[in-house]
Structure formats: C-alpha cells, structure tokens
From TrEMBL:
Underlying gene: mdeA_3
InterPro entries, per database record: Cys/Met-Metab_PyrdxlP-dep_enz (IPR000277), OAc-hSer/O-AcSer_sulfhydrylase (IPR006235), PyrdxlP-dep_Trfase (IPR015424), PyrdxlP-dep_Trfase_major (IPR015421), PyrdxlP-dep_Trfase_small (IPR015422)
Keyword Flavoprotein: no
Source species: Methylobacterium dankookense
Pfam families: Cys_Met_Meta_PP
Gene3D superfamilies with a match to the protein in the record: Aspartate Aminotransferase, domain 1 (3.90.1150.10), Type I PLP-dependent aspartate aminotransferase-like (Major domain) (3.40.640.10)
Keywords for this protein: Lyase, Pyridoxal phosphate, Transferase
Protein name listed in UniProt: L-methionine gamma-lyase
GO CC terms, sorted: cytoplasm
PANTHER family xrefs: HOMOCYSTEINE/CYSTEINE SYNTHASE (PTHR43797), HOMOCYSTEINE_CYSTEINE SYNTHASE (PTHR43797:SF2)
Length: 434
C-alpha cells in the first residue's frame, strides 16, 4: 500500500500544481528533484510493521510491484491535477483499462461502452467478452440518450473517452454522467487525448479517470505507463455488485475495502487486486520521466492545440482532402461540444481522408519527411499513421467507417514544431499524389 493520501485542498493554479503537486524536496538529502528509488523491496522496522502493511492495517512500502516512492509521487500529482482522491499507476494505459474493468466486473456482468474508442481498447473489450464474459454493450451513438438506451439490468458501469481517439469527437460528459447517476452506475472516462490540462472529467461528473501516460502526460515518447484515478465520491454500497469493494477479503482478515477506505475504495481495490495479484507495476524510471513531462504539460497542450487547429484548417481547404474530423474548426460536426468542454481546443489528434482513397493515404504517409510514421500519439514530435491497417485493424469495415478510420483515412498527432514547417511537409507529401 502506498503512502499517498487524499489530495489536499488546492491552493495553487493548474500550471503551478503541474510542477509541484505530489513531490517535495527530499528530506534526507535536500534534493529538489524527485529521487528515483531503484529498489524492489524496503526494509521493515519490525515484524509487526511488516505484518501490518501486508494486512492493510497501516500504510507503507513493502515491494515495488505494489508501490514505490517515485511511483507514489506520480500518483499524487496526477490525482491532484484530475481532482481525484487517489490514483494508481500501472505499466501501461492498456493495463489501466484492464484493471478498471476487472475490478468493477465479475463474469456475467456488462458495461455500456462508447461505440468510438481507441482500437486497442475495443480489442481488449472483445477479448474479455469472449474469454471471461465481461460483456460490452456498445451504445448506438455518442449522445447521452444512446448510452441510456444500452443499459440493462446486467450493466455495472459506463465507459467512454473524453476526446475520442482518433476522430477527435468531444463527448458530452455531463450528459453521460447524468445518465450514469440516474442508474447508479460509475462513469469511467479515458482522458488520454485531453489530459487534465484540457478536460478534468471529474469536474463533469466522472467517477473514474484513466490515462495512458505514454501520451501527453509524458510527452516525449520515452515511456510506457498508465494511471487510474478515483474521484472518491461514488456510492459503492450495493450488496449485489462490486464485490472487490463490498465483500470481505478472506486473505486480508475479512477486510471490506469500502469500510476501511471510504474516501478511495476503488483505488485501493485496484491496488490490491490489480497490482498485488495481477502485477502490472510501473517502473520508477518511467514514473520519474512522466513526472518530469507533466511539469511542462500546460505549455505543451496550448501549443499542441494551436498547431493542430492550423494544420486541420489547411487540410480542410485542400482540394485532395475529402474531409477533416476536427471539431475545433467552425462548422465541423461536434463544434458546439468542443467549444463547451475544450475552449482551448480539442487536443492535437485528428483524422482526415484523401479523395484518392487508400492508395493516396498510404502514399501520403510514405511521402512525409518531417512528420514521423509512428503509432504513438501525444508526443512533442508530429506523427502519422494509417489506422485502418494498424491501430484499428481489428474492427470490421463498417465499424471503421463509423469511427471515421476507413481505409482512406490518416491519423495525425500534431506536435510542437513550427507550424509553417509542418504545413510545408504536408504540402509536399500531398503534391506527390498528382
């Protein structure tokens, strides 16, 4: 169990907290930068202390798979920025989604999921459905009414993204949160594409927030990691569901997580089951690099959004481009929701389609010289990929079309380069399509 506590009252603004939250000068050495604790185990003062930590009777570090001081600093910082009571850092964003679903659900349970999600999330959901009967009930569309229509007596949660990867649609989080509240369901929001610099889903009613820290939080394409944030306000007291939170744990002397940890029961359940049992712990080096990246998050997101808006506008007016999916442009589908939730801009990841279809999409990507052909997103460097053959290849053709990742589609992740250089690279790649 980590020594992370509930987030203190926020007395500083976001950019200040991005630099300072969760870490302080090292009391042993005075080091101002968060130390990297490269150790797998921690010496106990006594056998009583060791027993108490393992039985969850007191907090403290025991083994780095479950908690590490460097990782705990990252957890505190992300929890602070998201307005959560606690956070659990894990080895990847995919692990974060997996742990959330497996902590919430038992075999036979279901959850309502957005029909537009990152391809890796969709693939995971279908695998869990086929092998473990954790059943995704996909909403017919993106409106709150679509989510409500998909709820059944088996439903135990609602899952969506704040900004959809990769089409950049902005979700009506307050509307979906109202649906979740009416039905007594936790709302889980993947906030990877927005980051807390653009959207803080808990402020709009979310109960659980997940991130792939490999994207904007880290920012430099150096690390893999994920984080789960617990808002700490959902009423988990349902005897017929959420057994990891409500039922006694025999191997922890009958511990009932909701009773022992009322402010952060979901985070504690994720740590006990997800990290102690399943084991996808985060490396302290990756935690350190992510902490360093977060220090510049507000500055980077402002530049990401400004560059993306300029690039999207250029593509929208280009004669070889069929359409652009970026609601930060006037008149685009979803522009009103984008203005409401992300006035700074809906991030820097979006899709566009070439009139020449898949052959031109492939030639365009291969013709880029400055923008890298790379599957990640949210880096300081600009990146391009063909999602239909990579990140979303497991979708059926009609599903790819609905998600705006058909074979003619290119996904861009716009970085921090001078925007004139980005447009020049895009222009020369488009010129090669003649």
């Amino acid at each position: 169990m980590t020594d992370a506590k509930a987030t203190p009252a926020k007395t500083h603004r976001f950019a200040t907290r991005a630099i300072h939250a969760g870490a302080s000068p090292d009391p042993a050495t005075g080091a101002r930068v968060q130390p990297i604790y490269f150790t797998n185990g921690f010496v106990f003062d006594s056998t009583e202390q060791a027993a108490d930590i393992f039985a969850m009777r007191r907090t403290g570090f025991s083994y780095s798979r479950g908690s590490n001081p460097t990782v705990a600093a990252l957890e505190r910082r992300v929890a602070d920025l998201e307005g959560a009571k606690a956070a659990v850092a894990v080895s990847s964003g995919q692990s974060a989604v997996l742990l959330v679903l497996m902590t919430l659900l038992r075999s036979g349970d279901a959850y309502v999921a957005s029909p537009r999600l990152f391809g890796g999330s969709l693939g995971l959901m279908r695998r869990l459905d086929g092998r473990y009967d954790l059943h995704p009930q996909f909403a017919a569309g993106l409106t709150p009414e679509d989510f409500e229509a998909a709820i059944t007596p088996r439903t135990r949660a609602i899952v969506c993204e704040s900004i959809v990867n990769p089409c950049a649609a902005v979700m009506d989080l307050e509307g979906i949160a109202a649906v979740a509240k009416r039905h007594g369901l936790p709302l889980v929001v993947d906030n990877t594409l927005a980051s807390p610099a653009l959207i803080r889903p808990i402020e709009h009613g979310a109960d659980i927030v997940v991130h792939s820290t490999s994207k904007f939080l880290g920012g430099s394409g150096q690390t893999i990691g994920g984080v789960i944030c617990d808002a700490g306000r959902f009423d988990w007291a349902r005897a017929d569901r959420y057994d990891l939170i409500n039922a006694p744990w025999p191997d922890y002397e009958g511990l009932v997580v909701r009773e022992r940890f009322p402010d952060m029961p979901f985070a504690v359940a994720c740590r006990l089951f997800g990290l102690r049992d399943l084991g996808p712990g985060l490396s302290p080096m990756n935690a350190f690099l992510t902490l360093t990246g977060i220090e510049t998050l507000p500055l980077r997101m402002a530049r990401h959004c400004a560059n993306a808006r300029t690039v999207a506008a250029y593509l929208k007016d280009h004669p070889k481009v069929a359409w652009v999916s970026y609601p930060g442009l006037p008149g685009q589908e979803g522009a009103a929701l984008a203005e409401r939730y992300v006035p700074q801009g809906p991030g820097s990841i979006f899709t566009f389609a070439l009139k020449g279809g898949e052959p031109d999409a492939i030639r365009f990507i291969m013709g880029l010289e400055l923008i890298s052909h790379l599957v990640n997103i949210g880096e300081i460097k600009s990146l391009a990929i063909h999602p239909a053959s990579t990140t979303h290849r497991q979708l059926r053709p009609e599903e790819r079309d609905a998600a705006r990742v058909g074979s003619e589609t290119v996904r861009l992740s716009v970085g921090l380069e001078n925007v004139e250089d980005l447009i020049a690279d895009i222009a020369q790649a488009l010129a090669k399509l003649d």
